[in-house]
Specification:
The complex is a heterodimer of chains A (257) and B (439). The longest helix of chain A has 19 residues. In chain A, α1 packs across α6. Chain A is an alpha/beta fold and 257 residues long. Chain A is globular and about 50 Å long. The termini of chain A are far apart. In chain A, 30% of the residues lie in helices and 34% in strands. With 439 residues, chain B is α/β, with parallel strands linked by helices. Chain B contains 16 helices and 15 strands. A 9-stranded mixed beta sheet of chain B has the order 2-3-1-4-5-6-7-8-9, sandwiched between helices. The chains are: A alpha/beta (257), B alpha/beta (439). At the A-B interface, α1, α2, β7, β8 and α7 of A face α7 and α14 of B. The structure holds zinc ion. The site of zinc ion (ZN) has 2 residues of chain B, from loops.
Chain lengths: 257, 439
């Protein structure tokens, strides 16, 4: 059985400066190797999103790019909300994730309104968080590189999908004992928001499988996610092991600016 | 159009102690192996006025070269063209483009009484420090090559980098030179500059014929993502391998680039614009072409080194990259897919997310993927559909593997490397000298 899975990337030219195409590529490559036909659609300002979309990806970019796409994105609000309510997949990273929060307060004190898909507010901060990050999640350790100057505040800590094991993360979690705890990654149904680059999906095969499994379940597709992925998994495991060794090594901290 | 040569400002005995202290510190750090910013720091503390005094002595002024990519190559080009016109050129070693590094370099050439024997200084300067250094060195000419997505972990946003260059440019006393084909730079506010602005560029049909154009950053803030229309004072008119023709003012200059690639052609147009502005009526296209012909490739930028220490045997061409635009431009410049290749990245490049923004179609396979980030690199190549021979994070072992592979017919293989592994790779091939003088 062949089925076509549709992945759209919103504003790839301006919200796509941190390898965000790699997240699309990871989904596409693994879906194709599992036997699906994949259609990847770059969608720019003023262009229509297909109605039967399976995955929506929104990437990272500067504040000016967020302002540049803002009116267009707000006009898509109902469509994106029903996409998420339908249980379809969404991945937003960095600026793209911020635009799906309830709003972003800039260093100048202005507010950039968000779509409110994720129940959190964002404040841009003077301090920048840069370096490798390791997060404990329901699908294992999610590993990547964080590089952002923002602090998220969740209305309810239950929206957190991960606890930071190494690195700084996006938001505070209720203290664990007397240790302050940090969280990263927010999930609502099959929509995921994060500040993790690398890009995140190529480095985290389990997270890709989680997203694809959701797509397959909703569409009632039978996909074998174990075929033809040996080298992808080997290289991802090698990259993950090298990062884990580095962050647990002596003297390694985050990048000094 | 030549800037008037300032009189040497009161260099003399009062600098003997600070200069001597700096030179001794420099000697001591050299003995310990390698350069250091400390001598520059020491001298700046002992005699803060030394730096402006040294800079004041260049008859043809001080030239700043800024840009996300191509600073080193272009600084080298401008220097060689000026030398071909008979000028004595002072230039900073590559990488020594931060304030203390520039001071250390000037110190090495200064006499004990704070005099410097050169006609012009051509300095590559880190964007982040350009305005600050301009206040101390009073450049006559400031060249900005391009604004490209680069080191976001350090610069945060590309438009900030554009503003650093444009802000520094307001400090040039004689000429501002910027890239017409760069969205941010083309929109320079000419009226906000003290000095007249000259543009350089590449003919539109040449850019259109290139796989990914010039890969300059899109302008995300003005509402016009592309460039503003400008007339180029210096324009690349034809490219044939390394042979290019550049219209400068009213005449055409035929020059041979130090390495293949449209980015090098654009750098050459920039270098000619700067040289022409520095020299005024003394500028000659013949001398300029001679300067280019004498240019050896800078370290790792098209440099060719024997693989097995045999000058007649198989060769390695080093292609250095530091970000997506520089890797893309180098891939686009390839003369067919390389028969044999090595690719290497280490932690000197902290975030490699941008690898997924590179189009690797120009490569079919990479024999050995190496460096601390070998697996991250291999993962990106695998997603791009590039065949991989072996992943070996240890560069030394990787080089041994390349040496053991049978010799290829082409006689030349390509190593794509980031800066740190370029230096290590050169050393492993027996070229262990530090990258110091750009001569
Ligand atoms: Zn292509």
């Amino acid at each position: 059985m062949t089925a076509t899975v549709r992945i759209a990337q919103l504003y790839p030219e301006i919200l796509g400066v941190t390898g965000d195409r790699g997240n699309v590529r990871a989904l596409q490559v693994r879906l194709e190797r599992a036997g699906a036909t994949v259609e990847v659609l770059p969608v720019g300002i003023g262009e229509e999103l297909p109605a039967d979309l399976d995955v929506l990806v929104i990437g990272n970019g500067p504040l000016s790019a967020m302002r540049g796409v803002h009116a267009d994105l707000m006009a898509r609000g109902d469509g994106i909300r029903s996409h998420v309510a339908d249980g379809r997949a969404l991945l937003a990273v960095g600026a793209g994730a911020e635009l799906l929060s309830k709003g972003v307060t800039t260093l100048e004190g202005e507010t950039v309104e968000g779509l409110g898909i994720f129940d959190a507010t964002v404040a841009r901060t003077k301090k920048r968080k840069v370096g490798y990050i390791v997060v404990e999640t329901a699908v294992g350790r999610v590993i990547g590189f964080e590089d952002h100057a923002s602090e998220w505040t969740l209305s309810d800590a239950a929206g957190s999908y991960g606890r930071v094991a190494f690195g700084q993360g996006g938001f505070a979690l209720p203290d664990a004992g007397d240790q302050p705890a940090r969280g990263e990654i927010i999930r609502v149904a099959n929509a995921i928001a994060a500040n993790i680059q690398g890009p995140m999906l190529p480095l985290n095969p389990e997270l890709v499988r989680e997203i694809i499994t959701g797509v397959a379940a909703r569409r009632d597709l039978e996909l074998d996610l174990t075929i033809g992925v040996e080298s992808l998994d080997t290289y991802a495991a090698g990259a993950r092991a090298a990062i884990e060794t580095l962050v647990h090594g002596k003297g390694f901290n985050s990048i000094q600016l | 159009m030549m800037s008037t040569a300032p009189q040497a400002r009161s260099a003399g005995l009062r600098y003997v102690f600070p200069v001597l202290a700096g030179k001794l510190a420099r000697f001591a750090t050299r003995l310990r192996g390698g350069g250091s910013a400390f001598p520059g720091y020491l001298t700046n503390r002992l005699a803060p006025s030394l730096l402006p005094t040294l800079a004041d002595q260049f008859r043809y002024g001080v030239v700043f070269v800024l840009g996300s990519n191509g600073k080193t190559t272009t600084t080298h080009m401008v220097s060689e063209v000026l030398r071909a016109h008979g000028l004595r050129v002072f230039t900073n070693p590559t990488g020594a483009n931060l304030p203390q590094g520039v001071t250390s370099a000037l110190l090495a050439d200064a006499t004990l009484t704070g005099r410097i024997k050169a006609d012009v200084a051509v300095l590559e300067i880190d964007e982040g420090y350009a305005a600050d250094l301009a206040d101390r060195l009073s450049p006559s000419v400031i060249l900005s090559l391009n604004v490209q997505v680069d080191q976001l972990y350090r610069f945060y946003e590309t438009e900030r980098v554009a503003d650093m260059m444009l802000d520094a440019s307001t400090r040039a006393s004689a000429h501002v030179v910027v890239n017409r084909d760069d969205p941010y730079l083309s929109k320079i506010d000419v009226d906000a500059m003290r000095a007249p602005v000259s543009f350089f560029g590449v003919a539109p049909e040449i850019i259109a014929a290139s796989a990914h154009g010039l890969v300059n950053a899109a302008d995300t803030r003005s509402g016009n993502a592309g460039t503003a229309e400008r007339d180029a004072y210096s324009e690349v008119r034809s490219v044939n391998g390394r042979e290019v023709s550049i219209r400068i003012g009213e005449v055409d200059a035929a020059v041979r680039l130090p390495a293949r690639g449209l980015h090098y052609a654009a750098d050459a147009a920039a270098a000619l614009a700067v040289a022409s502005r520095v020299l005024g009526d003394e500028f000659s296209t013949d001398a300029a072409a001679q300067g280019f012909s004498r240019m050896a490739p800078a370290y790792g930028r098209g440099e060719v080194i024997p693989l097995r220490r045999d000058p007649a045997g198989e060769q390695v061409e080093f292609v250095m990259f530091k970000n997506a635009p520089s890797l893309q431009m180098n891939l686009d410049a390839l003369d067919g897919a390389p028969e044999r290749a090595l690719m290497a990245i280490d932690e000197g490049t902290p975030d490699v997310s941008w690898l997924y923004d590179v189009d690797f179609h120009a490569l079919e396979s990479v024999d050995v993927v190496t460096g601390e980030k070998a697996y991250q690199l291999a993962l990106a190549l695998e997603h791009a559909g590039v065949r991989i021979g072996t992943v070996e994070p240890d560069m030394g072992k990787a080089v041994a593997m390349m040496r053991e592979l049978p010799q290829i017919a082409a006689g030349r293989q390509i190593w794509f490397v980031n800066y740190e592994l370029m230096m290590i790779g050169r050393r492993l091939l027996g070229h262990g000298d530090q990258e110091v003088a750009r001569r």
